[in-house]
Amino acid sequence: MKFKAINTLSIKELFISQIEEMILSGELKPGDKLPTERELADEMNISKTIVHDGIRELARIGFLDVISRKGIYVADYTFTGNLETLLAVIRYRGDTLDSKMITSLLDVRIYLECPALEILCASRTEDDIARLEILQSDMKKALDADIESFANTLFLYRRAIVSLSGNCISPMIMNAFFNASITAWTDYCEFIGREPTYKSLLQTTEYIRNRDATAAIHLFKEQIDQYRSHFEHPHVTDDPVAKMKGRNN
Fold it and tell me: Which residue range or ranges hold the HTH gntR-type domain (predicted)?
């Protein structure tokens, strides 16, 4: 068995990390002009080549805007950023999200999962249902486990829905936010409760089995709205499954 050598961060990586941190902490704000590459190199006691390459990388991921003949400016990464930028933001925050980012993530889930539910309800096979039932069983076993383990089973179930719908990109998008998602799912499960969360999962599987996309999507959106209320009305604790059953009776 051969182990790889452990290497420290390169000077370029340290340069990028420092500029990222200054931007994400608010020390550098959108529109701020940075010193020239030569001035940065002299001030930070590193080579101009390292500064040049680091700035190109920071521009590529949306943190900086290099304008020819004008200079280097801090970009508004919420407009110029990409997936790497978002992951850098999440890492900086220790895999935790503020309420604005969580509500934005909930919107992304609607964009990803509602079409997936519609497709899966129309095309589901018995093998698909069997796969969901296995994940249901895993969640049932996790009811008495630690909350993070329970949240993990919930993540796997929701990811399976988009995967079984045939979309090969959406599961990878979900995986990119795995750590932050588990943090959010843990908060969700603590707010909603494990038993209601598990019941809603069982109901979702039944809707998929019955090819009832309208009910499945409605239940999903009610769950999202209920969790969203966590940030606006902390004492709202209605059970979305009970509400759906009452509506269907």
Answer: 9-77
